[in-house]
């Protein structure tokens, strides 16, 4: 397996593990945090080094090279912007072997003026994400010696746009979601996978920049982690997908209905899809999930854990990620800013023609993976629980007398 494939699998594996601990509607980007953990692993020592290596899924001695490879490949993906930033106090001496592995233009200075430093970090996050993330998700204090951050922004326009329609949904019966509908003769855009936790319906929504979004609807009762984890395993080829043109009649998967139709004129088989628009954001405290990210030992400020970064003892004092994602009729937008801060450590007439219609409805909570089509690198992932409302309605429209039904 090529190194790039190894890195993609490692990043996607972190996506799947993170998905297993999310709760409620959210969006997150393992691709945003993984390079930072890899650079930390390269400079860590002792137990912190082993924990970080385990989190990134690559030996610590190879982690920095893999992170550079990943960051170097992102700009080549159309529709993706990425950046790495490093800020240190002037008095903090870095190991040349470690700092030489970071982009030269990435290194900035923490002046000690908390207001000015905060403004500079926020401006960097906003600029690098096209204004989608306005604040750097890190806590600055007088003791902050180093901030390592990444920014990731992606955008794509659908090859075929959706039509906006009001969505009727049993699950969202108290509101009128903004539905998105379109038809296509490409039945392979939909498929069903049989996973250990249940069947999962996958819809591929293709973008014009080789950035696609896969919508994933699991069986009733499957958790967000199970559905998202299944989506990553499907990408990895662990669960074969039965495409739409091979699905049996009836209800072969969640949200699906396949029917034989008699018509007066010939028509090719059709896939009729209805989903919902969503616009969501989330803030993640990575230290609350310290075991997931290999930061358990690294956050212990009683001593230093990064002898390969600096001779000054350092521990992780703050780590966060801010993310946003919008899925609409014409395209998809997402962004993530991730930062780690180090502090001192411690019946019809004559129906002679027959055709097949596959109807897919994503009308209850579902998952999504935003990915690069060719490498299959997952750039953002999430669980949709609160769709946008249809224009002119409110969340109480179906509860009020005379409300939309």
Structure report:
By secondary structure, the chain is an alpha+beta fold. The chain contains 7 helices and 18 strands. The longest helix is centred in the N-terminal third of the chain and has 17 residues. The protein folds into 2 domains: 218 residues, Antithrombin, Chain I, domain 2, CATH 3.30.497.10; 157 residues, Alpha-1-antitrypsin, domain 1, CATH 2.30.39.10. α1 crosses α4, α2 runs antiparallel to α3 and α2 runs antiparallel to α4. The strands form 3 sheets. The protein has a 7-stranded antiparallel beta sheet. Strands 3-2-4-15-14-13 form a 6-stranded mixed beta sheet, with helices on both faces. It has a 5-stranded mixed beta sheet with strand order 5-6-12-16-11, with no helix packed on it. β2, α5 and β3 form a beta-alpha-beta unit.
- What CATH first level of the largest domain would be assigned? Alpha Beta
Stretches where pLDDT is under 50 for at least 5 consecutive residues are 347-352, 398-405
Strand content: 25-35%
Distance between the termini: 54 Å
Q: What spatial form do the alpha-carbon principal axes imply?
A: elongated
Calculate Rg over CA atoms: 23 Å
Determine the fraction of residues in helical runs and give it as a percent range.
Answer: 10-25%
Number of domains as seen in the coordinates: 2
Number of helices, where a helix is a run of at least 4 consecutive DSSP H or I residues? 7
Main beta sheet: strand number and arrangement?
A: 7 strands, antiparallel
Widest sheet: strand ordering? 1-18-17-9-8-7-10
CATH topology of the largest domain: Antithrombin, Chain I, domain 2
Taking all residues together, what is the mean pLDDT? 92
